Amino acid sequence: MSLHVEISHQRDVLLVRLDGELDHHSATEVRERIDREWSKGIYGHLVLNLSKLTFMDSSGLGVILGRYRRISEMDGKMVLCAVQPSIHRLFELSGMLKILPFCEDEQTALNVCGVAS
User: Which of 19, 31, 78, 115 is 20 to 30 Å from 63 at the Cα level?
Assistant: First the structure.
């Protein structure tokens, strides 16, 4: 299976929805698309909606951790939302649950980033 990446925004929040498998085959594309959009300089925060992400390996973890570092260095917030149980377990095992905020749904994540509904 492949990965579909949907990118949009709400105010200064870059919103990325991932659908499919984030693995070594798709990690570079995801990183480049997020970085290209982020480099426009109009966003302050990032929300990753993982509701349709069915698989992720260490390459995917690396992409997410790398984006978190970049955004944190710029005093932005990065929030993950709607994470499937198997993917959530991977975050838990990797220790990333300790540094990344998780929300149940996209609207809550946007609220955390300062976007009122």
Answer: 115
Pairing of strands 13-22, 3-10: antiparallel
Buried/exposed code over 72-102 (b: 16+ C-beta within 10 A; e: otherwise): eeeebbbbbbbbeeebeebbeeeebbeebeb
- Tell me the longest C-alpha to C-alpha distance in the chain: 36
Instruction: Give the C-alpha separation, 3 to 115, whole Å.
Output: 27
The C-alpha atoms of residue 23 and residue 44 are separated, in whole angstroms, by: 26
Q: pLDDT per residue over 25-76, tens digit each?
A: 999 999 999 999 999 999 999 999 999 999 999 999 999 999 999 999 999 9
Dihedral sign for Cα atoms in the order 58, 55, 88, 111: positive
Neighbours of 114 (CB within 10 A): 12
Q: How many Å apart are CA 92 and CA 43, to the nearest integer? A: 28
